[in-house]
Every structure is written in structure tokens, then in C-alpha cells.
Design brief:
With about 140 residues, this protein is of the alpha+beta class. The chain contains one helix and nine strands.
């Protein structure tokens, strides 16, 4: 009978050891998860590139014209809008460096007119305004 009680005690000690080991491992995992989480949303935010557009001011004749603008955007995306319907862009959206053709249609009014084209980069950087004057 003495050996049976020693086996029960040994068996209880083994179960207690396994339980403590399981609790210890779970505690380590919990602490690891707790310290690996942060308040940011986890999104990767690259450093924005320099952004430039040229030319930013030009004049075209009344007969209309195509003008190329050069966008230097590196890793940035961009969009182009015009405040006048007589100016259109070959690409309204893009990313990186690109040459975009602006088409200015014929001015049949006989009056000098002005349009503003805005090239807006991503990352909330300052947009570049292009002024187009047509005789």
C-alpha cells in the first residue's frame, strides 16, 4: 500500500508540474503578445519623395495646342484636375515620374482666357498649380 500512495503522490506532483509549465508558457505568450502590439494601425508609410511639376506657367495661341508637363514624383501618386473644360490631360491619375500631355482646344471666343490645372500629390503634400493662358 505504501508504493501505491507514493505513485499517487508522484502522479499528482507530475500533473502539478505539467499544469505549472502550461501556465508559465501561456503567460509568456500573453506577455509577448501584449508587448508586440502597438497603437499604430500597422500601415507602412514610406518617406515621401520630392515632388515637382514643370512648366507651371505657359501661354498658347488661340488655335489650340498640346503642351507636355513633366511630373517628378518618385514614389508618390498624383492626380490632375482642370478648372476649365477646354483643357484636358492625357492621364488624370498616375504615380512616379511621367510626362503628361495637356491638350488645349481652339479658343473661338476671341477673348483671352485662363485656366488653372492642379497636380496634386499623395501624402497630403502641397499641390502644384499650373496657369495656362490662351490668347
Amino acid at each position: 500500500m505504501g508504493s501505491k500512495s507514493r505513485m499517487v503522490i508522484y502522479s499528482n506532483n507530475l500533473n502539478t508540474y505539467k499544469m505549472k509549465k502550461t501556465i508559465y508558457i501561456l503567460s509568456l505568450l500573453f506577455v509577448g503578445l501584449l508587448f508586440s502590439c502597438s497603437d499604430d494601425d500597422g500601415a507602412y508609410r514610406p518617406t515621401p519623395s520630392e515632388f515637382s511639376v514643370s512648366p507651371t506657367d505657359f501661354t498658347v495661341e488661340a488655335i489650340g495646342s498640346d503642351v507636355n508637363i513633366i511630373i517628378k514624383a518618385g514614389n508618390l501618386g498624383w492626380s490632375i484636375t482642370s478648372d476649365k473644360d477646354w483643357v484636358s490631360a492625357s492621364n488624370k491619375f498616375g504615380s512616379g515620374d511621367e510626362t503628361v500631355k495637356l491638350t488645349i482646344i481652339k479658343n473661338e471666343t476671341g477673348d483671352k482666357r485662363t485656366a488653372k490645372v492642379v497636380v496634386k500629390p499623395t501624402f497630403e503634400l502641397k499641390p502644384v498649380n499650373i496657369t495656362i493662358t490662351q490668347n
